[in-house]
Structures
1.
Amino acid sequence: MERIFKFKYGLNSIDLKLPQSKLIKEIKGRQDHKNDLISLTKNALENPIESPKLSQIVKQGEKVTIVISDITRGWQKSNLFLPFIIGELEEAGIELADITILAAVGSHRFHSEAEKQTLIGEKYYGKVAFKDHNCHNKDELSYLGKTSFGTPVYFNRLAVESDRLILTGGIVFHDLAGFSGGRKSLLPGIAGYQTITKNHALSLADKRGEGLKKSVDSNHLVDNPVHLDMAEAAALVKVDFIFNVIPDGRGGIAAAVAGDLIAAHQSGCEITSRLFGIKMRQKAELVFASCGGYPKDINLYQASKALVNAAQLVQKGGYLILFAECKEGIGHPEVEDIIQNYNDNLAREDFLRRDFTISRYTGYLITTAIAEIKLILFSNIERKILSNTEIEVIRTKADLNKILTNRFKELPDFYSLPDAANTLPIFED
């Protein structure tokens, strides 16, 4: 019997008719929530973790900076939860003129006016100040010292000098930091470029040819130097309150946590592991995966999160079919450079060790993730951009059906990952 499998692709979806009998497992997060984001937000703000309520922290006349994630993390739905945070500040006597929204763009691009409105929401757009963080402008940064890892800590001056600092964001698995959210709103979110690159370079193994440290991976915190460095850097600035959401894998929100930077974030990480850390025993010859649609597949840079997760399920020599629209292409010229202009991963590693940047790291991560498998990228990305790789770019279901027919006498057993960006296979020993 055949079944229709839906894979989100940009703002649409690709429907594939595949034999149900060949499906090993459809890997999804656990859908055990019943509340909408508004209910979750209210509950989290009413019951902060190891912290007073926000209204009990702030005082009339204080300047407040609220850090939010950039448009590539639009799934967090900041336009829906910000009104409750700002509303609580207003009730505590904070004037709108004393509130600034600071977008934690890290080293990403700035926002258009339309994107700013999308992030803030209609109620407060134009009524509170909005600023994009600029990691390259030293005049907008404050130096706070060095971590034990040798990372010079530069954070956005506005955030550092505010009377109150509130961090918002989302918690998912992260291939560098273990989990996103919490301290990541600071580093890389509102950090200086030198701080970001030094921190992320801690991912490289000590010896040439070994690539990346094994401890730097999704779901790893305890022995992860990238996370530990972030935590040390975060301790150098006073964070008064955080609010983080956890996605549900269907375009909604499964949970929300608020309160103390460390305690609330830890609680959110535990929820994420429980919902989206899927224990597995075997790999497969064929895996179909979607990033989860826009904005998770806005470009290859963002799609890399899903690619890395899904690739772990593919056996050596097997195939990963990844649905990623990538309407903005690669996402950064440095990603394209390290993918296209180096012939093997050792050469890419050498270049990364000489001149580490986050974008080059992402390009290197992509090529190492698929080193022993075959990637079929269903995408609008230009084929020539990836011509120096073995990645096959296709655009239509007809192209895909042709590949499946030509490569396999009979379709092998397969996994389906409809939201690979948020779902992490965890192999049991």
2.
Amino acid sequence: MNERSLTLTPEAPDRRGRILQVAGRLFSQKGYHGSSMRELASALGLTQSSLYNHVANKEELLLAIVDGVADEFLVTLEPVVRSAASPTAKLRSAVRVHLQIIAEHLETATVFLHEWKFLSATYRARVESKRGRYEALWREIIAEGVERGDFRPLKIEFTARWILSTLNWTYQWYSPQGALTAEEIADRYLDLFLHGLLKS
């Protein structure tokens, strides 16, 4: 894949962002395999041949979207984990920023969470590596909480995956016009993560 093929003409930053935005919307609504470059070109007001002046193929768009969201998750969580805050405060921040990314970038986050598996093996491995690094940051928060005695002696990997699975499923039902904001959803999740269902 030519990494320069998304480097566009003088209006490149805006045009590139627009292409990825519309591709994200299309992929999130119709799925990667259900979307065509012809549909994308039409949605952008371009001819198909003009679109290919900016991007080599459909997979390149998928990789750019997925890579971008993966990087956003990593860049946002790393300072939380490295901070001097308590494990509980880190967990609260981690949940909030994770849901904030999903809420603010719902279409591309949907592609990241659901369509990434359609990448070819080489690019899928690249994304899996980033996803693994991201999960490791969550394990660090939980392990620190267990070590300090703030959290019960939980199975670290299981707990991290449970929390992430819960958060990641939010894209399936969250709506910006819904009854709850992303922050309110985060607070409800945190109440369950930290206190469970039983009365204290």
